[in-house]
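Purpose: get a first structural picture of the assembly so the mutagenesis plan has something to point at.
Setup: two entries, given in the order below. No constraints added.
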Amino acid sequence: MAALAIRDVRKRFGTTEVLKGVGLEIENGEFTVIVGPSGCGKSTLLNIIAGLEKPTSGTVEIGGRIVDDVAPKDRDIAMVFQSYALYPSMTVRQNIVFGMECRNVPKPQRAEALARVARLLQIEPLLDRKPAQLSGGQRQRVAMGRALVRDPLLFLFDEPLSNLDAKLRVEMRMEIKQLHHRIGSTMVYVTHDQIEAMTMATRIAVMHQGEVQQFADPDTVYNRPANLFVAGFMGAPPMNIFSARVEATPNGVQATIGQGENAVALALPDTCKPHAGRAVMLGLRPDCIAEEHRRFGADAAGLTIEAPVEMSEPTGAETIVVLRIGGERALARVSPDTRPAAGSRARFSLDMRRVCLFDPGTGMLIA
Amino acid sequence: MALGSYTGKGARPVRNAPTRVLLHAIAILLAAAYLVPLAVVLLNSVRSAEEIAQTSMIGWPLAWAWGNYATAWSDFCIAQTCTGIQPYMLNSALVTVPATILSTLLGAVAGYAISLWRFPGHAWIFGLVTLGVFLPEQMRLIPWTIVLRDVGLSNTLTGLVAIHTIQGLSFTTLFCRNYYLSIPQDLIKAAKIDGAGFFRIFARIVLPLSPPILIVSTIWQFTGIWNEFLYGVTFTTGTQQPITAALIALTAAVADAPQYGVQSAAVVLAALPTLLVYLFGGRYFVRGLTAGAVK
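Result (C-alpha cells, whole complex):
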C-alpha cells in the first residue's frame, strides 16, 4: 500500500497554473525528496499534501484514505517548516506538547512522549527556554521534536535546513537521514538543494514549472537524467551538454562534436547505434572527464583526447578544469594534483559508458 | 517578535549654534501657545469666582481656592441636581471601560480572522469595516437613533456602550489587522496541523504576541470614548449623561454669576483620566504603532 498517492493534482492561482497535473506514489518508509528551483510548485504541492491548500483538481491519498475533504489535523501528518514556526510565546516544552494538548492526550502520556523526543534529539537542557533564546540549530531541533512527538503516517519537511549556515546544514542533513533509518517513517522532504536531494533521498522527484520531470532513485536521476532540465539541475557542476552528430563507422558508433578542424569524434557505446545519422545533445558529467591516466571501471583501454585548457580551479579535493571539446566549453573533475596551465593543451581520459543522448527537439533522454 | 525600537532617520543635527537657538525658541513658543489653555484652566481651577470676576480671566491665584475641586466633585448643581460631577464621571467610566475592552477584544478577533485566516472575501470585509473610520459621526446620528429606539436602549448607558463598541471596531480592526500581518503565516499552519482551531490559535499563539497593539488600541479607544461628546449629548439626558455632556449643562445652568473657578476644576477633573492614560501609556503608544512597521 502506498503511504502517499498524489493523482493528477492541479493548482491554479488566478490565471497562473502552478501545478500542471502532478502524480506521485510514495511507498511506506520511503524518504522522498521533492527538488526543484524556486517557483517550480514544490512548496505548493507540500501544502496540498498537508491540507493547508486545496488543489484545483486531483486527489491526495494518505495511507490508502482519500483526504481531499479532511482537515490538516486529521490527516495524520506532521510538518517541519523552513521558518521552524515555533510558537514564540511558549517554551520549548509547551511547543512540543501543544499538539497533544490540542488532541486531549492524557498528561502522563504527554510527558512520556516529550521525554522520548527530548532524549532522541538531545534537547533536554532546552525544554524551559523560549524560541528566541535558541540558536538556529537548536530551533531546528525543536521543530523536529514537535513533529516527532506524534507518530504520524507521514512526515513533511519544507526546506527545513535552508536557514542554517553551511556547516550546521551538513550536520543536520546527516542527523535527519539517521533519524529516518532509526524510525523508518515515510518522509516527504522539499528542498531546492540538489545535494540534499542526492544525499538523503531514497527517491527524488525533480520538479520544474509545475510538473514532475523525473521520479527515480538518486543514482538514476544522476546518471540517467530524464531530460536536459534534470541533467542541468542535478549535479554541481552540472552535466556538460554538447550538440553532436551520431554516425555509424566501420569501427563502431561515434559522436562528432564541433566543425572542421576543431571537430572531435568520440566512440559511443553500441547501445547508441539506433540513433546513427541523427543530431543529438550529448551529455557527459564532469566526473566522466579526468586526467589522462585515470582508468574508469575495469576496461583498461579508455578513450583519451587532447583538448585546449582555458582555466584550472583547484578546490582542494579535486581540480575543476575548464576545457574545450570540439570548440564547446566543458568542465572536467581531475585529481587535485593535476593543474594544467591556462592556454596549454592537455590530454584527458573520458568515461563514455556514462554518456547520455538527448533529443535536441524535446530535450528527452533517448540513450 | 520583539518590540521594535524606533529608528527613524531624523533630520541632520544642526551644528550652527545661532540656528539651533532660533529653532529651540520657535519650538518653545509653539509649545507655550499649545499649553496656554491648559494653564488658564489649571490656574482658574484654584481661584474663587469673585477673584476672577474682580480681576481677570487670566491671572495668578491671589488666594488658593482648593475648595473648588471638592465643590465640583460632589456639591455643584447641574440642571437642578446638586451632586457635582461625581455621578457623571461614573457614567463616563461605565461607558468607557466596557466599550474600550469590548471593542479592543472584538477588533483583535476580527483583525486576526482577516489577516491570518484569509477566508474568501476577507479583503471586502476589511474594506467595509474600515470604511467606518472615514464616516463622519454626524452622518451616523440618525441611523443610531433608529437602532437605539428599536432595541429599546434610548437614553441608556448600555446604548452608548453599544455605539462605541461597534464604531470602535473600525479602528481596532484596522490596528490589529495591520499588526497581525507581521505574524508569519507558518505559525498558523503549524498550529492547524497540531490540531488547534480558530479560537485556540487566537488565545494561545496570537494573543500572547499582541500586547503592543492591544495597548495602542486601548489608549486610542479609551481617549476617544471618554472625550466623545456628540453621542453623549444626543442620546442621553439628565442623570444618564457622560461627563462631557454634563460639563456643558454645568456651564449652561449658571444663570447668575459665572462660576469659572468651579467649572475649571470640573474640567480638570474630567480631563484627568485621559491625561493619566497619556502620561503612563504614551510611550507604549508610540512604540506599539511602530512595532509592526519596523519589525
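The longest strand of chain A covers residues 2-13.
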